[in-house]
Sequence to fold (118 residues):
Amino acid sequence: MNLPKLDKDTPPDQLHSFMSKAREASELLKALSHETRLLILCILTRGEKTVGEIETILGLQQAVVSQQLARLRMEHLVKTRREGRLIYYSIDNPGLNDLISVLYSMYCEPAGTPKDSA
Fold:
């Protein structure tokens, strides 16, 4: 992994850029720091779902799911698509799928399970 080298000789504009990116990453991690939001994102990595489908999968009330989806929308992590009376939610940033996959590998994948190479 090619990580940046930050030291006393780092140019101020480069340091400012790193600080800005660190702030963005911090905001993303704050949005992910709720277990229901994280589970919703895990569900959405497999494709778009309605609020009702997410409710059924998680066994939670509609109000709880809607509240967490609203936060994810506010953070621009999910987007919506309307079809008739149904609103479908999906992940807005494809890179988020990679992050969720890493978190799944770290915390959820059973030990000894072969990694999916696809």
